[in-house]
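DATA SHEET
Item: assembly model
Revision: 1
Owner: S.N.
Input lines:
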Amino acid sequence: MTILTLTGNYAVAYAVKLARVKVVSAYPITPQTTIVEKLAEMIERGEMDAKMIRVESEHSALATVYGAASAGARAFTATASHGLLYMHEMVWWVAGARMPLVMAVVSRAIGPPWNIHVDHQDIFDQRDSGWIISMAQENQEAFDLTLQAFRISEDPRVYLPMMVGLEAFILSHTVAPVDVPDQKEVDEWLPPRRQPYVISPETNFVMGNIVPDEDYMMMRLSIQKAMEAAKEVIKEVDRSYGKKFGREYGGLVECKKCEDADYIIIIAGSWSGEAKMAIEDLREEGYRVGVARIRFIRPWPEEEISELASKVKGIIVFDRAVSFGSKGPLFLDVATTVNGRTSLRGVIAGLGGTEVRKEHIIEVTKEFINKVEEEGRVFEPEYWLLPDPYRGKPLEEVAPRWW
Amino acid sequence: MGENKITSSQTCVIEPPKTFFWAPLSKPAPAASGKTGTWRTERPVIIQEKCVKCLLCWLYCPEDAIIRKEDNSVEVDYEYCKGCGICAAVCPVDAIKMVPEEWGGKQ
C-alpha cells in the first residue's frame, strides 16, 4: 500500500485502474471530468490495459459501457448533474437488464439556474431506477466504495449496477491523503468479473425485447428481491474489505455515538463530517446526539433506521435535495421507516452548494431538541435552512422584483 | 478489433444468479406476439412474371415474412406479414404491389 495525496476524482480513477477495468467511456462534464481524464492518461501511458471509447453524449457513454459489460468486460463510466439526467434512460436499461456495472456520480446541482456546486438532486433523481446507490463522505471512502462497487454489483445474489456518489468540489477537487493498496492485494480481494449472461455473436437471444405484461411485473419483483439481498452483500463486502485493507465502515449506515444517543442526525455525503463535529459540541452542552450517516440510499437501510427509531426521542434529517411538492427525499424514506414512532424534523439545506457549517447544524438540531423536550412529540417534515443572507428574514422582503 | 479486442472468455465468468431472478431475455420464436398478419391493412402481392429473383425483398423484410424457395423465387407468408410495404418499396422491377386488404389481393 501507498499513501497518495489525491482529489476525490483521482481516488476513483485509481480504484478503477486497480479493479482492472477493460472499457471506459464517458463524456466530459464538470465536476466529473478529471476522473476520466486521469483514466485516459493512465491508458495512454500504458499503465492501464483498457480501451477508452470517446462518445458524443452521456446517453451514448452509458450505452457504450452497457454494451461492453453485456459482452463480458468490466466497464466503467462517470458523470454528474445534467450529464446524469441526459443518460437517465440508459440508467434504467442497465438495471432492467440486470447487468453489473459501476458508475461514479459526482453529485452537483441541476439547472436552471446554472450551478456547478454540490447538491444531491442529480443522484436522488436516479433513486428509483434499480441501481445500488452509495454516498461517500471523503476521498478515501470514494476510493474504497469504487473498489467495493465491482464486488457488490457482480455478486450473483445482486447482479445490479452500482453508483458511487461523491460530492462536487468538496470531494471531487479537494486533495486528501488516500491509502492506495498494491495491485497484488486488490487482485487477491476482487474476484474476476461475474455476470448472469453474455451477449456475443454466437448467442441467439434478445435482450430487453417486448415481454408479456405479467413477465414484466415479475422482472420488477426480481429487482426488488436483488436489492433486498444486496443489503447482506454490502455488509459482507464491507467486513471483508475491512479485514483485507483495514477500513470497515459499518455497512449501509455508519453510526457515530448512536449507542447512548437520545437524538439522531441522519445525513449522507461529505457534510456528515460537519455533523460529526457538531455532535461533539452538542454533547459538551449536554445534548446526547448521535450521527447515522447513510452510506447507501439504495437499498434503503430500513432495519438500521428502524432500530434507531424505536430507541430515540427524535430524529433530524438533513437533505441536500428536494422533491418539489413533497419533502426532502431522504426525509421521505426516514419518515416511512419511523412510522410515527418518534419526533421528526426534515431539514432542507445546502442546495446549490450553499455553505452549511457545523454551527448551522448545531443551531437547527438544538432548536429541534428543545422543542421536543418542551412540547413532546414534534413532526416538522419541511424545515428550510436558508443561506446566511436570507435566513430569518420575511420572504417578501428578500424576493427580487423584476416587474 | 485487433489489439483492443475484448472477448468474454478473457474477462468474465458466467455464473447463475443466486436470488429470484428474471432477466429480460427472450429467444426469437414464431408467433411470440400472435399471428401478426392480422395487423395488415395492405398486403404485398408478388407478380411472379416480373420477378428477377434478386432477393432484395427477402433481405429487407423486417419480419422474415418473405419465404425464399429453392430456385430463389419468393412468396409472402401472410400469417406474419404486417403489410409494412418495405418489400414493395425495395423491389427494383416493381414486381410487388401493395393491395388494400378489403380487395382480397385483387388489384
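QC remark: The longest strand of chain A covers residues 2-7.
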